[in-house]
Fold this protein.
Amino acid sequence: MKLEIHHPDLRHIVRWGIGVVMNEIVFDATPEMEASRIDKCISSYLDTMSRSYIQKIIKDGGVLVNDVVVKANYRVQTEDRVRFALPDTIEPNIPAQDIPLDILYEDADILIVNKPKNMVVHPAPGHYEGTLVNAIMFHCGDSLSGINGVMRPGIVHRIDKDTTGSIMVCKNDETHRAIAELLKSHDITRKYRAIVWGRMKEERGTIDAPIGRHPNDRKKMSVHAKNGKRAVTHYQVLEYFDNYTYIECQLETGRTHQIRVHMADIGYPILGDEIYSNRKTPYRLEGQVLHAMTIGFVHPRSGAYMEFEAPLPEYFEELLRKLRGQSVVKRE
């Protein structure tokens, strides 16, 4: 396949707030691409761009097949001519900020941080400061991958604002692609600690229920979404209390709000969760009692398995002490 670069003639189609359309990429689909989705086809052709970023271009009307704008679910036919506008990446107005980081591990490829409560992972329109990205931009300088775009440099996965714990940052595109593949194949260990409402009947189990955008509330996720994606959470009881249960959850997949949605769906919402539970907590909390404790993976460069643990935050430890003092039933 030959890569052709042209002056832009799709400038009227695509609009980005963070870039200017500079080039157009054109290629002809090969027999190996037959019946593949257009987003997957482009991703395999141009592996320097993430699938989500390609889908953003398609959603904005920036991909044409045989001179017709297509959607992400278009199935490619052999010899289809694919054209799309490639924006120049420019620096957004996101300042690097000297925000203290609790670093669990760092090398030339990877940074693992213990994220505190009330910190958003990446900037969003109208909220460009005080995020983890602002902090890692200051700490890492130019050593961050750019695959997920200028708003999410180095970010390969994320956790919610009020969830604490371990999060991995990639310092270069090669490492980012390798870690993304491990996530896709479910080969990264991710264990969370949580306290849920109620005494769970089963000491361990697996929740296998698809998750997608809530049909009526776009700010929430749901297991009842029409186009939900498969989501699997394994859980194990660590301790029983009178009215609560301390559990460990291991993610097999990584959907938005996965543990919070799954636990609420089986009747044991996470304590303090203001979105997926309408129960009023008797404790002074700031959001859900959920902590990303363990992350483990095979290092893309060394090939060695590495595992790191973020200690429970003080508020979580204090809550456990209170519950243990009030409980009459305890489990090692």
Observations:
- Residues 102 and 116 are 8 Å apart (CA to CA).
- The helical segments are 38-45, 51-59, 132-140, 173-184, 258-265, 314-326.
